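Lab notes, practical 5.
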Amino acid sequence: MTSFTPLAGPSWTQGREGHPGSSRTPGELQVRACFSDCACRFPLISSLSLTLSTHPSTQGPPGEVIQPLPIQMPKKTRRSVDGSRLMQEDEAIPAGGAPGSAGGLEEIFGSLDSLREEIEQMRRPTGTQDSPARTCQDLKLCHPELPDGEYWVDPNQGCARDAFRVFCNFTAGGETCVTPRDDVTQFSYVDSEGSPIGVVQLTFLRLLSVSAHQDVSYPCLGVAREGPLKLRGANEDELSLETSPYVKEFRDGCQTQQGRTVLEVRTPVLEQLPVLDASFSDLGAPPRRGGVLLGPVCFMG
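Output from the prediction step:
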């Protein structure tokens, strides 16, 4: 068993045999713990001394003062925001509002209203210059009651500044028809006001369509011919009754003296239309159109 033997009385300053005793003051306490009989026989090895001193003369110099670390406040999250403080801050803002508050909210709501109107115009276009449709078929789907006539379209759906006016044939299901113009060297295509239609808009009009058709007519008499009428498509394909299955003779007017023969090009290959040139000789040679007239090219979306 472990025993604790307090040392008191005369043995307070008594040393071991052969060693002078040490001078102790009344404020000191020495405790010797003997863990076994063998340990008590060898006090130099097994004795554990604990000295507690309270005498003023034994105190060391004062220690350095350690300053406390600065207190770091945790970052506020959305859940840690105090709603009552937000209400107080809102009430403290003057009636005029700070930048980005009351006045800023009015500006945001105004922008949202404007954006909502633009989206609504895109969803339900009216066919006007300010609210053009992509195609005449889109306009017919939004307003089935509209009659045939001229309306504004914007196939690329970009800025309305490049919108153009076309003839919408709602009777045929909503065809978008563009008018040709003879520029001597080749045909070009214009809107209802005579302004040229850009290549980008024509390209988007093809992409939004599934088929297209165009009529070509020529007189039966008074024309020098070197062969059948040849047409050059927008993709440089040669189109004729002999070479293309999409070219049909719509009406043979040669039975009358002043008649005109009408060919119809109706094709699912939209890159072939509109027709850019027509000739009774080799295409690319000096124009010899011989009274050839082109009708509007109509795209069905």
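Observations recorded by the TA: Residues 7 and 31 are 7 Å apart (CA to CA). Helices lie at 37-41, 43-46, 83-92, 102-123, 136-142, 199-207.
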